[in-house]
TrEMBL record, chain B:
InterPro entries named in the record: AAA+_ATPase (IPR003593), ABC_transporter-like_ATP-bd (IPR003439), P-loop_NTPase (IPR027417)
GO MF entry, a single one: ATP binding
Magnesium among keywords: no
Residue ranges occupied by any ABC transporter domain in the UniProt entry: 12-247
PANTHER family found in the cross-reference section: HEMIN IMPORT ATP-BINDING PROTEIN HMUV
Species the sequence originates in: Neorhizobium huautlense
Keywords, sorted A to Z: ATP-binding, Nucleotide-binding, Translocase, Transport
Pfam families: ABC_tran
Name this protein carries in UniProt: Iron complex transport system ATP-binding protein
Task performed by this protein: Part of the ABC transporter complex HmuTUV involved in hemin import. Responsible for energy coupling to the transport system.
Signal sequence coordinates: none
SMART domains: AAA
């Protein structure tokens, strides 16, 4: 597929799902009612309030989280030249969660201030994952060893999280939804602080896109074409990690969007150029919005956790991708 | 003075370049000068340091000792982008994302000439089209890298390096992955590039290819330059025996020098 039609298609899918998201729920709202709630809002009409306060806010959160995780995953996959990495498979999500829990337990942090320990946790996780992968692969470049390192890192930080929570379970009782990754009705509050991270991150990613594309040809080729590989790689990591962290701070560790969205992008329009980045952004938003619709309607009126829905679908997708990678390598 | 005339055309010089990992010297006090308009082949056995030498010239590795100068300025003082306007390189590893479209791949060669906003100018497009025509990959423009054979990809990557329009062209085993027809076509292209006034420096495996196409051959062994000069002066049975440890008989066909093992000829 060419980039142009691909972008049109994903934009249409995005608006379609946005519409579906606002109408679907425990109780179906007619499109006319949604339209009124948006453009002729009556604060005394309970159904209008539901559409705005419970659905539109969730829609914005789902769209934001999907978009930034997808871009983070695409950037990581491109600079590491490894189709299996993503914020979740590298352990970034788990690292951020662990450091947030430390921040709460040790320093009593809350709200937007938790972005900082989460960010440190994200960078720490990447460092640990690289270290572990280096020990496993002993210098050979092997896509699976980095994922193994990431899995070890995730396990390590998750155990640390569980340990700290076990020291004072009551204090973390209201965080259970966040710990598995869920969109709550008040998640738009931290997003009001954090959205600039996503907007500037994606903006810089668009600016750096050309250099990052060069890096996909290998370090030496990129350097002789005129890019500075170390600078580009460091800069891209400095974009990809905060992007993912800003999502984790809002909804907790929602996995696999950052893995699957880049794959869909690559399959449909390739990974090169700014159109692919735009496609991936919208594709990530579409995935999480769809997951949120599923979470709210599958067992309605009971709500599922978006993180659980994503983990179920994404886990299967991850398996398929790993098997495809192994097949390709065997061929 | 003859040396003065030669110096006027010299574009790249290496002065006493030494490079090593740990205690092992990979390159040992190498001094060379490259002039525009010549096609130089660097040959030697595996591990003799020829690829390392090319990477040192491209500024990918820093020498432990010595200096590399481009137009009398140290290579290390150039930014990567500025250096790429003077020097293009076809690296040995041919990795490229499977989803990348060929015309985008070739277009990567223009990066060094692009500004933040000025991309895909008429000049860029002219260079990309010309490079694709030269490497006979125009028909592949809309194909994805994953659909190409190894040889097709190698030709597209060569087109990318040509699109860079640099005065110095470094080629690291450029005939890898190519079948016979395209090996000769690529080497012919390299010679044509030198004929238009560029300095073309290629690491080659095949001595016959080197003798057939290069103006000058540098024979390396154990990190040192053993011989440097016209093909007929460098590819002697004595030098081959000294470097490769095999007794050969040299047969010439026009420009080509073919070394055959003595035992097989009798």
């Amino acid at each position: 597929m060419k980039a142009g039609p691909g972008l049109v298609l994903v934009t249409m899918a995005f608006f379609l799902l946005c519409g579906l998201h606002l109408t679907a729920g425990a109780r179906f709202s007619a499109p006319a009612l949604v339209f009124d709630a948006l453009f002729d809002h009556d604060p005394r009409n309970y159904q209008h309030v539901v559409v705005i306060k419970q659905r539109l806010t969730r829609l914005v959160v789902a769209g934001y989280v999907g978009a930034v995780l997808a871009v983070s995953g695409l950037l990581l996959q491109k600079i590491l030249r490894n189709d299996l990495v993503s914020p979740s498979t590298l352990g970034i999500n788990s690292g951020a969660v662990a450091f947030v829990i430390f921040g709460i337990y040790l320093f009593g942090l809350n709200g937007a201030a938790l972005f900082w320990p989460a960010l440190i946790g994200g960078f720490a996780a990447v460092a640990v994952a690289f270290l572990a992968a280096g020990l496993v692969s002993r210098g050979r470049r092997d896509p699976l060893s980095l994922i193994l390192g990431g899995a070890m890192t995730a396990t390590l930080f998750s155990s640390a999280t569980t340990f700290v929570i076990s020291l004072d379970p009551d204090r973390f009782g209201n965080l259970m939804g966040w710990l598995v990754g869920d969109i709550g009705n008040f998640d738009y509050l931290p997003l009001a602080w954090l959205w600039p991270v996503g907007v500037t991150g994606i903006g810089f990613a668009l600016v750096l896109c050309r250099q990052i594309d060069l890096l996909t040809l290998g370090t030496e080729q990129a350097a002789t074409l005129g890019a500075d590989p170390r600078l580009v790689r460091a800069g891209t990591l400095a974009l990809a990690i905060p992007l993912a962290i800003s999502a984790v701070c809002v909804v907790g560790p929602i996995g696999f969007v950052g893995l699957v969205a880049p794959h869909i992008t690559r399959l449909l329009i390739g990974e090169t150029g700014r159109p692919a980045l735009g496609f991936c952004t919208l594709c990530g938003a579409v995935i999480v919005i769809a997951a949120d619709i599923a979470a709210r309607t599958l067992l309605a009126p009971q709500l599922l956790q978006v993180g659980t829905v994503m983990a179920l679908c994404g886990g299967i997708a991850f398996l398929v991708i790993v098997v495809a990678t192994l097949r390709r390598r065997a061929a | 003075m003859k040396a003065g005339v030669e110096n006027a055309q010299t574009v790249l010089t290496l002065e006493d370049v030494t490079f090593g990992y740990g205690g092992n010297a990979v390159l040992d006090t190498i001094s060379l000068a490259f002039r525009s308009g010549e096609f130089v082949a660097i040959v030697g056995p595996n591990g003799c340091g020829k690829s390392t030498l090319l990477k040192i010239m491209a500024g990918l590795l820093s020498p432990g000792h010595g200096a590399i100068k481009l137009d009398d300025r140290p290579v290390s003082s150039f930014s990567r982008k500025n250096l790429a306007r003077h020097m293009a390189m076809l690296a040995q590893s041919n990795e490229a994302p499977a989803g990348m479209v060929v015309c985008d791949l070739v277009g990567m060669g223009r990066f060094a000439h692009e500004g933040w906003l000025s991309r895909g100018t008429a000049r860029d497009i002219a260079h990309i089209d010309a490079a694709m025509q030269t490497m006979a990959v125009t028909d592949l423009a809309d194909r994805r890298v994953g659909e190409l054979s190894g040889g097709q990809l190698q030709r597209c990557r060569m087109a990318m390096a040509l699109a860079q329009d640099a005065n110095i062209l470094l080629l690291d085993e450029p005939t890898n992955h190519l079948d016979l027809k395209h090996q000769y076509a690529l080497l012919e292209t390299a010679r044509m590039q030198a004929a238009t006034g560029r300095a073309v420096i290629a690491v080659l495996h095949d001595l016959t290819h080197a003798s057939l196409f290069a103006d000058r051959i540098i024979l390396m062994d154990g990190g040192k330059v053993l011989a440097d000069g016209a093909p007929a002066d460098v590819l002697t049975p004595e030098n081959i025996a000294a470097v490769y440890g095999i007794v050969t008989v040299a047969k010439t066909f026009g420009r080509a020098i073919v070394h055959l093992p003595e035992s097989a000829v009798e």
